[in-house]
Amino acid sequence: MQQIKKLFYRNGKSYFSYVMIPVLFLVLMAAFQLDLINTYWQTIILLSGINGIVAMSLNLINGITGQSCLGQAGFMSIGAYVSAMCTKLVFDGFMTSGFSSYLFFIISLLIGGAAASLIGLLIGIPSLRLRGDYLAIITLGFSEIIRVAWRVIPPAGRAMGLNTIPKLSTLPMVFISVVIVMLVLRNFTNSRFGRSCIAVRENELAGETMGINTTRIKVLAFVLSAFIAGVGGGLYAHMMTFINPDTFNQIKSTDMVLYLYAGGVGSFSSALLGATVFSFLPEVLRSLGEWRLVIYSLSLVLIMINRPKGIFGKHEFGFMRYGEPENIHMKAENSGILSSLFQKLAYRRRKAERAPAAGKGDQ
Amino acid sequence: MSQLIQLLIYGLQLGAVYALVALGYTMVYGIVRLINSAHGDFLMLGAYTAFFISLLNGAGLVACILGAMLASGIIAVTADLLAFKPMRDQPKFTALITALGVSTFIQNLSRALPFIGPIPKPFPTLLESRPFEVAGITVTTVQIFMIVLATILLLLLSYIVGKTKIGRAMRAVALDRDASALMGVDINRVITITFFIGGCLAGVGGVFYGIMYPTLEVSIGSFLGNKAFIAAVIGGIGNIKGAMVGGILMGVIEIYATSINADVGFGVFYLFLIIILLVKPAGLFGKLTTEKV
Questions:
Q1: Residue B178 maps to which CATH number?
Q2: Which chain A residue has its CA at the smallest distance from B292's CA?
Q3: Domain that holds residue B260
């Protein structure tokens, strides 16, 4: 692995992950097209990508800006409903050929995201005055109110929800969305606004003293996060082909938070990987019947108790760091369960190699 | 008019349950600063314990309530020792995630255990409900029993917190944990007792819930727990008086709202929460603490 990685070093930067994205895409595409994996697992792979998008959007609020949001399913549901209503009711006549249906699907996704971010703005302005636990509670409250709103709005199908939504969330759509979302979040985090977000997280008062309009920055992060969650919701609706208000209940919100924190809060890559691992885990354990969810939740609790940094820690993929290699301090600070395990193994190996030489030195 | 008072009685009955459960949330929050999302599941396990005790021959209402109290209390203390204690020094949100994990764990475990299982169970009628009429309003013995017992428990709790030595220790820990440790208060003991009392009240709440809605399901805990939690927040989380008032208030409001439209009933709960938080960010009785830099 290290040898392969070394092939992609140029001018002190690693282009490994840049190359790996198309490779991964081609591998998955080939596997989907040649039916190497059945439809069930294909759905799980798409679902983990979509969950990853929403978990990453949550990381923007919880990890980067340091606020606590618990109601991401609310924004997801707005994106899902609005985009599904667009493709089903508004753009129905336009979606004749393959190309135009994807074009209008993308437009619907963006409209869904925009609607979610508008609601995010309306919710964010009053609620971001609150802090900590109270903010978490109020976002939870808003997401429940959104859910109740869908139950009483007639075009949204009330409690029945919407069904026969066109199945447009294919692998290329989801994969490219994940990549685009990651790039947008990377560029945002490294921009002036993103650094302001980090300043708010580290010390709000100090940030304010340095001339950052903290309320504005928090609302901005909230709106962007709502947009991305809305897009994720739109993808979800067009993958499942049916949604109802109870799809986006509190369990969905907490699931997103659990993905993020089990993966490793503060890093977008970890959010994606955490969502992937914990979307797959219950399905892998399916043969255990009811016990699979017991193992699933028990593993979550054990991770949180023993390694609060999560499975993957704060590591980012290479392209999320613009190809800059991680130095030894970042490695130590970012380490999650996996990397500390690797470090331990590497340490043991080095010790075993050195042992005979050290023995001679002593004599 | 008489219909409004009739609904008020129902509201008080529901509010009594909410108040009992909300107290558990608020006491734990006041002392450990943890939103204990698993509290509703302690309640669910208490209700199931009462159900199993009622299957025994000759076991009456009192045995059921005591058994539920004890079971919920012991489970709450166990959860604290195993899961929440290691999280004391971690960031608050990480502790909240752990509590969420514990909550899903308890629910899924009870779903997987063969003697609880996913199928709803009928809760037995522990108390014969005899209606009688007072000035055009129908009141049942169950309602009177529940409201009276809840009031007694609330008064007992006020006495424990306000007048006894352990209550004084609780208030001290809630005010300043480090200073009270320096004054010789055994923090861990106080926290354990707090979890136990909270669990006991949740157990009673579980039995009350079973009496009111006689189907037991694994998810009743999170369902009722959520509402009680909101009631605690509205009253000002961390404040015992607030939890009592908030619980009763939300019970009454919910009954009135659902009598207008069943779908909107639950939304009103959250709407009320948001309005209260925006107007009074620390709840009705809470004091806003500024975070020190």
A1: 1.10.3470
A2: A205
A3: 2-279
> What is the domain count for chain A?
1
A142-185 per-position pLDDT tens digit: 898 898 888 888 877 777 888 888 888 889 999 999 999 999 99
Domain assignment of residue A85, yes or no: yes
Query: Quick check: is B165 in a domain?
Result: yes
Residue A362 pLDDT > 60: no
* Inter-chain residue contact A148 with B92, CB threshold 8 Å: no
Q: Has this prediction a pTM greater than 0.90?
A: no
A82-125 pLDDT per residue, tens = 999 988 888 777 777 778 888 889 999 999 999 999 999 999 88
Distance CA A90, CA B151 (A): 56
Question: Above 0.85 for ipTM, yes or no?
Answer: no
Q: How far is CA B218 from CA A190, A296, B17, B47, B117, in A?
A: 46, 17, 18, 10, 8
In a domain, B262, yes or no: yes
pLDDT number for residue B202: 93
| Binary contact (A297, B91; C-beta < 8 A) | no
pLDDT digits (tens, 9 = 90+) for A14-34: 788 888 888 999 999 898 888
Average pLDDT of the residues in A201-226: 92
pLDDT at A363 over 70: no
Q: Which of A152, A293, A321 is nearest to B219 (CA)?
A: A293
Question: Could you tell me if residue A359 is inside a domain?
Answer: no
A289/B264 Cβ within 8 A: no
Using an 8 Å CB-CB cutoff, list chain B residues near A137.
35, 230, 233, 273, 277
Of B101, B222, B281, the CB nearest to A297: B101
Which CATH number is A81's domain given? 1.10.3470
Query: Chain A closest CA to B85's CA: distance in Å?
Result: 9
The stretch A290-309 carries a mean pLDDT of 85
Residue A206 resides in a domain: yes
- Is the Cβ of B98 closer than 8 Å to some Cβ of chain A? yes
> Around Cβ B128, how many Cβ atoms within 10 Å?
8
Furthest-apart CA atoms within chain A: distance in Å: 86
| Structural domain of A177 | 2-354
Query: What pLDDT, on a 0 to 100 scale, did the predictor assign at position A159?
Result: 76
User: What is the domain count for chain B?
Assistant: 1
